[in-house]
């Protein structure tokens, strides 16, 4: 049996106070400073991951830094904390380590971490892409959106996940807008897409303009704060939010009953998995980045699979094939950790039609 570990971290201070209730009595600023000195933590033992061909077990290991600290503290310090957490995974017996949330984003997206550990490392981004695209296509169909003719926006397009999402969707969509802050990278990506598919993608650094025009949005930035608010979305829009921390404000769920926001990369794990840790999903479900680490362990591919800023379509196809072999599958739709039924999607679709029919 090959064993794995997956690295998590508190998205914000509230995650720490949930884990350590006494800490809620401390000022947030003091608590955040204190987390810099906390050691890596074994959070839980994961059991019961079993496919028709193999089984595996592993651990959640926690790096104590929050999302904001990951991007604001000196990179050298942050990388040292991530590597030390990886060494805890080694000591526990893991052979492959998955990097979760911001630990897969900071620095060079896992390359330095892998160089400093004696076990394999993956960010999980390949399977994240595969499941995000599958879920987005299904959601668009249920909302009666004709994807080849729809206005599609990729927000965070120059990141590793955004870029390969754009390349794959360009094979199916005629109207594609790439959104990111770095215009030079946007020009380069648009050129690659035109060479690969013939599609001439629009590019912009103004996210709100693109979001307000789009029928379908995949958003996957590394922003610490939300970037999509209720007023930014047109009636009937589908948004797949792959980012953690989230790009879509919870206010969207509270104020907009005419748009469908889905969590990207939610996967049903084969076997009778017990995570022994509540990360917001019901039993048996995991983020796709977690699932990629499990898939590689089950397959015995103890290798650095997804690292760095470049992903290939071939990687996506490979992990998709292995996922299907071992029984992983996209677990319906969820929005802000809650399930979205077909009846709920139908209600959103009808409300969008009503609003679209109102005089402007």
Task: Explain this structure.
With 360 residues, the chain is an alpha/beta fold. The chain has 13 helices and 17 strands. Strands 5-4-1-3-2-13 form a 6-stranded mixed sheet, sandwiched between helices. A 6-stranded parallel sheet has the order 8-7-6-9-10-11, with helices on both faces. The chain has a 3-stranded antiparallel sheet with strand order 14-12-15. The longest helix is centred in the first third of the chain and has 18 residues, at 75-92. The protein is globular. The mean pLDDT is 93.
Can you tell me the overall shape?
Answer: globular
Q: Helix content range of the residues, please? A: 25-40%
Unreliable residue runs? none
Q: Ends: how far apart? A: 62 Å
- Which strand-content bin applies to the residues? 15-25%
Indicate the structural class: alpha/beta
């Amino acid at each position: 049996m090959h064993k794995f570990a997956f690295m998590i971290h508190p998205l914000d201070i509230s995650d720490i106070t949930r884990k350590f209730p006494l800490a809620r009595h401390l000022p947030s600023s003091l608590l955040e400073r204190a987390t810099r000195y906390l050691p890596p933590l074994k959070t839980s033992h994961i059991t019961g991951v079993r496919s028709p061909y193999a089984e595996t077990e592993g651990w959640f290991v926690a790096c104590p830094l929050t999302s904001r600290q990951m991007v604001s503290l000196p990179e050298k310090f942050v990388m040292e904390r991530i590597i030390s957490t990886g060494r805890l995974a080694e000591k526990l017996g893991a052979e492959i380590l998955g990097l979760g949330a911001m630990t897969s984003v900071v620095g060079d997206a896992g390359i330095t971490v892998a160089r400093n550990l004696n076990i394999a490392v993956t960010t999980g981004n390949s399977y994240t892409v595969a499941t995000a695209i599958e879920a987005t296509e299904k959601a668009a169909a249920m909302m009666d959106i004709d994807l080849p003719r729809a206005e599609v926006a990729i927000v965070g397009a120059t990141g590793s996940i955004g870029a390969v999402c754009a390349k794959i969707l360009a094979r199916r969509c005629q109207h594609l807008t790439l959104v990111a802050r770095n215009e030079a990278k946007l020009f380069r990506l648009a050129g690659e897409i035109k060479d690969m598919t013939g599609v001439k993608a629009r590019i912009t650094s103004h996210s709100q303009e693109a979001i307000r025009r789009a029928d379908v949005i995949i958003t996957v930035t590394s922003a610490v704060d939300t970037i999509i608010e209720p007023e930014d979305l047109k009636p009937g829009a589908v948004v797949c939010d792959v980012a953690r921390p989230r790009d879509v404000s919870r206010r969207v769920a509270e104020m907009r009953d005419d748009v469908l926001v889905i969590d990207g990369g939610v996967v049903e794990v084969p076997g009778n998995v017990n995570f022994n840790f509540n990360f917001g999903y019901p039993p048996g479900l995991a983020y796709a980045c977690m699932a990629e680490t499990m898939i590689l362990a089950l397959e015995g591919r103890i290798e650095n699979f997804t690292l760095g800023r470049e992903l290939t379509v071939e990687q996506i196809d490979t992990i998709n094939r292995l996922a299907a072999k071992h029984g992983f599958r996209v677990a319906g739709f969820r929005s802000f950790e809650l399930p979205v039924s077909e009846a709920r999607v139908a209600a959103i679709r009808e409300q969008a039609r009503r609003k679209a029919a109102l005089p402007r």
